[in-house]
Q: What sequence folds into this?
């Protein structure tokens, strides 16, 4: 692995399975689920009170010793997802030092994910944790809980004194056998670690992270995951006509790159469908000569979130059993300011020949995506294409910071992505690809204006649609949820890396292109 000036980083917790109960294990912390029982639920091994709160599975012995139900009543606990009641344990009960009573709400996937994240925050710097939370409803809760526990543990460190805290060392999932749930746990960890990787890449500061650095990360991923990789440098980009990527990156001391990663399933043949993923990889965005203000620029190290998501997704496709070919394209550039900067009024020629008049250099993401999309249409001819980018502030205005927006030119593809968003816990809201605003792209000197004005998220999507070649295509604009302003559920404050879980949930299905037609 290439040397990095970054200090050692916090690592995610490890997970194991055991058929035993949580109180049978020599763990420092035991975490038990607190829920309102569902109709017909089997309460064996649980304890419940008159207020209908249930603790379990595996809570009977601990309740007899510590009166856990009485503590819940005194604390006026509700069992809502992510609620934590901490019960100190006196010395003399083996390694056990604390019992955590963790709410799981209505026991939906979101509730288990939130419970996992709450547990992660409550067990920082703890060496060993045992919990029966996923055993309450493993088919719904196992993956969601593990994802929450991993991502709720995320921490980036570049302090001289070291990390402020470490994630829990090992979390043992009690009441679940390796034979029955080992494969599900392995998949859950793959999805969770993909989210971690995307978040990490988006968080690395831009004094280290530039297009060449991102390309090196891609090469490392390709080596580890058995992917084919190709990287275009600035000379190759110029020779092959990638005018958008070159124009955006030409002001920077660190030249742009185009990164291609190829995945094929083990039994791929000529008839195996192909999906292209395109990620915006702007490693820092000043806005160019249409410069951002200081507040708007402060978070722009994460403007390559789309590229990070594509990279994290490509790394995990084999592990989730993706049955289709996938090509990942990351258009990487730094949107900087210098004497060679792209100017308002310049006209650029994209890959394939379409031209854009640049009226706002801060609308740069669509310029680099356009090149990569046009290349995919000409050389890959995929059965579907999805791009992902922190593209427009307008999406944040429309949706706030808890939803991502997306556009699609085919309902079947839109439906598949919506289902994956719901299952993965990375929520999307479909936006209209409204042709009524097409005239806003009009330019007197070029094929299109790169900054057609409001409604900004829609006009950006319409701009990109011209580079989709009429293929089934979706555009994910995650600028709305690219940063978490505060700790909330599995999101830790800062860049979110939103999208990897969603894409892996979609591409890990038996038929990711069901109903999609070219």
A:
């Amino acid at each position: 692995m290439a040397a990095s000036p970054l200090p050692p980083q916090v690592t995610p917790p490890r997970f194991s399975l055991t058929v035993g109960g949580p109180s049978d294990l020599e763990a420092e912390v035991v975490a038990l689920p607190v829920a309102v029982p569902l109709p017909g639920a089997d309460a064996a091994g649980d304890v419940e009170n008159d207020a209908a709160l249930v603790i379990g599975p595996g809570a009977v012995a601990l309740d007899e010793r510590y009166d856990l139900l009485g503590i819940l009543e005194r604390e006026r606990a509700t069992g809502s997802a992510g609620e934590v009641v901490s019960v100190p344990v006196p010395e003399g009960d083996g390694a056990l030092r604390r019992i955590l009573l963790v709410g799981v709400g209505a026991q939906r996937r979101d509730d288990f994910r939130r419970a996992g994240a709450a547990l992660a925050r409550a067990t920082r710097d703890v060496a060993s944790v045992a919990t029966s939370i996923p055993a309450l409803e493993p088919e719904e809760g196992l993956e969601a809980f593990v994802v929450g526990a991993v991502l709720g543990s995320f921490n980036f460190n570049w302090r001289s004194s070291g990390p402020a805290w470490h994630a829990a060392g090992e979390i043992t999932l009690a009441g679940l056998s390796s034979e029955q749930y080992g494969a599900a746990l392995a998949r859950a960890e793959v999805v969770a670690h993909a989210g971690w990787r995307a978040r990490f890449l988006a968080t690395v500061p831009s004094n280290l992270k530039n297009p060449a650095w991102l390309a090196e990360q891609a090469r490392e991923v390709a080596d580890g995951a058995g992917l084919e990789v190709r990287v275009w440098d600035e000379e190759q980009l110029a020779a092959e006509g990638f005018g958008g990527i070159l124009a955006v990156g030409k002001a920077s001391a660190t030249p742009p790159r185009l990164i291609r990663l190829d995945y094929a399933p083990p039994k791929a043949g000529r008839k195996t469908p192909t999906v292209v993923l395109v990620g915006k990889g702007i490693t820092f965005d000043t806005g160019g000569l249409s410069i951002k203000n200081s507040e708007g620029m402060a978070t722009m190290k994460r403007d390559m979130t789309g590229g990070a998501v594509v990279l994290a997704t490509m790394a995990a496709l084999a592990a989730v059993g993706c049955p289709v070919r996938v090509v990942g394209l990351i258009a990487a550039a730094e949107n900087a300011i210098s004497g060679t900067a792209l100017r308002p009024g310049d006209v650029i020629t994209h890959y394939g020949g379409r031209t854009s008049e640049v009226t706002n250099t801060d609308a740069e993401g669509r310029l680099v995506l356009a090149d990569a999309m046009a290349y995919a249409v000409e050389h890959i001819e995929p059965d579907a294409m999805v791009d992902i980018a922190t593209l427009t502030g307008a999406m944040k205005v429309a949706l706030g910071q808890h939803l991502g927006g997306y556009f699609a030119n085919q309902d079947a593809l839109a439906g598949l992505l919506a289902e994956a968003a719901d299952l993965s816990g990375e929520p999307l809201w479909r936006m209209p690809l409204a042709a009524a605003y097409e005239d806003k792209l009009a330019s007197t000197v070029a094929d299109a204006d790169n900054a057609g004005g409001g409604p900004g998220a829609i006009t950006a999507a319409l701009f990109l649609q011209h580079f989709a070649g009429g293929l089934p295509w979706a555009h994910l604009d995650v600028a709305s949820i690219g940063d978490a302003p505060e700790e909330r559920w599995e999101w830790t404050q800062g860049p979110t890396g939103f999208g990897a879980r969603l894409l892996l949930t979609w591409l890990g299905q038996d038929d990711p292109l069901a109903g999609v037609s070219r």
In short: The CA atoms of residues 394 and 455 lie 7 Å apart. The longest strand covers residues 274-285. The chain has two domains: 14-174, 198-507. The two ends are 41 Å apart (CA to CA).
